[in-house]
Design a protein that fits this description.
- By secondary structure, the protein is an alpha+beta fold.
- It has 2 domains: about 140 residues, no CATH class; about 110 residues, no CATH class.
- The protein is about 20% helix and about 35% strand.
- The protein has 5 helices and 14 strands.
- The longest helix is centred in the middle third of the chain and has 18 residues.
- The chain starts with 7 loop residues before the first strand and ends with a helix.
């Protein structure tokens, strides 16, 4: 029997990446205590099994030499219904411990003192929200600035520059198109955010200079522009992520005043 979501006063999310090799192998734990005005939060992430790798091998994969991180602080209350809704809509395994494949396990405690430990049967969804939570923590701790995505369409007679600033901590985003700006609710950008990192990005064809030639381009937040024709590669033959990204930007532009 699982806890009623409205009675939950504490959640702990624990993740282990399983058997993937270093430097990618890692584990994290997020502890959340729901207070009256905010969520008391503790977060720890540790990268594993790097002892046998050289500094060059780690750096060449895009990591630093010390990617471990810890945080103790407060998250905005807006996260509470999101996480409780995720809990109430999840189904659970009878297992209590993770195996060698890794995954996510969740601890929930209610206001009556009942504690339940379970492994989610929807681990991808829990991992997705965990990544959003981690980005919120990085923003609040000033470890990282809010994620900014830029998308540019250049034709023979006009140029459209779309800019999205995702504020994970408050679950809102600022959408700007050629200078027109509006703050929109998180749900409006969720589909776009989920699609942006689905294709493979070819950094061999990317440029740090803002493009001026005809075409469609995207900067995923690291300052490198990728042209849709050559720089993005759909990894799933059954889903055209590139087309979906373009459609989502065009849809968002219709929401501007």
């Amino acid at each position: 029997m699982h806890i009623k979501s409205e009675d939950i006063i504490r959640l702990e999310i624990e993740f282990h990446s399983g058997e993937i090799p270093a430097p990618y192998s890692h584990q994290f734990k997020i502890k959340l205590v729901f207070g009256k005005n905010f969520i008391n939060t503790q977060f720890d992430i540790n990268y594993l099994d790097r002892e046998e790798l050289s500094e060059e091998e780690i750096l060449n994969e895009g990591f630093s030499l010390n990617d471990d991180f810890s945080f103790v602080g407060e998250l905005p209350k807006i996260w509470e219904p999101v996480l409780k809704n995720l809990y109430s809509n999840s189904k659970w395994s009878h297992q209590k411990m993770l195996d060698d494949q890794g995954g996510i396990k969740v601890l929930a405690k209610d206001k009556h003192g009942k504690i339940v430990r379970s492994i989610a049967l929807n681990p991808k969804e829990w991992h997705y929200y965990s990544q959003e939570l981690i980005q919120a923590i990085y923003e609040i701790s000033k470890k990282e600035a809010p994620l900014q995505i830029r998308y540019k369409q250049v034709t023979h007679n006009k140029t459209m520059l779309y800019e999205l600033t995702f504020k994970f901590a408050t679950r809102k985003f600022v959408f700007c198109c050629n200078g027109a700006e509006q703050i929109l609710e998180w749900q409006e950008a969720k589909d776009l955010l989920a699609c942006i990192f689905l294709p493979d990005y070819d950094y061999g064809t990317a440029t740090s200079s803002e493009p001026t030639k005809e075409g469609n381009y995207i900067d995923c937040g690291d300052g490198f522009w990728h042209e849709f024709g050559e720089g993005l590669i759909n990894l799933d033959e059954g889903f055209d992520a590139k087309k979906k990204i373009q459609e989502e930007f065009e849809r968002l532009s219709q929401l501007l005043p």
